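User: Hey, my collaborator sent me this sequence without any context and asked if I could get a structure. I don't really work with proteins. Can you help?
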Amino acid sequence: MGQASLRRDFLKTGAAAFTTSLFTGSLCGANDRPAIAFIGCGRMGSANLQFAARAGAEIAAVCEADPPALERAVAQAGNLGFRGIKACRDFREILADRSIDAVSIATPDDRHAEMTIEACKTGKDVWCEPPACLYIEDGIRMVEAARQYRRVVQAGTVRRSGGFFRKAREIIKSGTLGEVAYCRTAGYGVDSLDFVQFAFDEAMPSSISAQGGKTYTAATYRYPGFVAAYERGDRNRGGTIFHGADATLLVNRDGYWIWRARGAQPVEARTAQAASGMAEMNVPHWINFLECLRTRYKPVSDIETCVRSTVTSLLSDLALRHGATLDWDDHSFTWKLEV
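Assistant: No problem. I've predicted the 3D structure and written it out in structure-token form, which is a compact way to encode the shape of the chain:
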């Protein structure tokens, strides 16, 4: 591409759209157990029905465009003890129903942004599955809508509530590993990258580069003080590895392990078999969401964090497409493509 450059003005309304102040809006209903509708009842939507019920949610409605899937969702809700719930195929019926306080969105990815924004406009709180959006501008609009309409919007980046992942973050912050200059993660992009940013309390990387093809991508993210590598196409459960000056930590859904520098055997390990409840992520995440609906505090995966993690993933695709490095200027909210 020679010396071409591409500049994107990615926050047209200024830094205020990405505020970090506590949320103080009011819940739509007066009931201490908010009524929740589930929009999208495929694999993840059905799983959310199960997790939400275990967390103590009040399932009030299900919405699904596919009739057989809608029937299955109604039956599933009945098996969970919720009979006579509302069932519809058009999400606009859910948004128009004033008896519903919050919605869970687990539709195809291209509908997440639109539905979240519209739900906020109608005074409903939102659980939204990642990725938050497919276009950067839509992600910004999601954050703006959550702030403007004072809604609690929880993203389904559930590692932030996982026992093993939270313990790993605690270990990193304690200094047990020494200075961590490099980490590697793999698997599903947004969730994996979100945990890296959560572990270090980083909003976004300062630069991104990527290489690969349709079935495999390797991306490098540079943050102040450390570098993160991500591999898409790695289907194993390798999890995320943090390399510190004194020790290395590996964490995944099954546990965490710590090796001292040059050690052959882990000096500390905790696995799902030996740690009851530590492997849980989805139910604690739903418990956090339900609690925030009552307290009106921001959830652990506030939509802003998911939008930033989603944008990080989208920009690695952009860097791959152009064979270039993207540099981030957090003051002007502009990405510059260096070729």
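In plain terms: The radius of gyration is 21 Å. You can pass these tokens on to your collaborator as they are.
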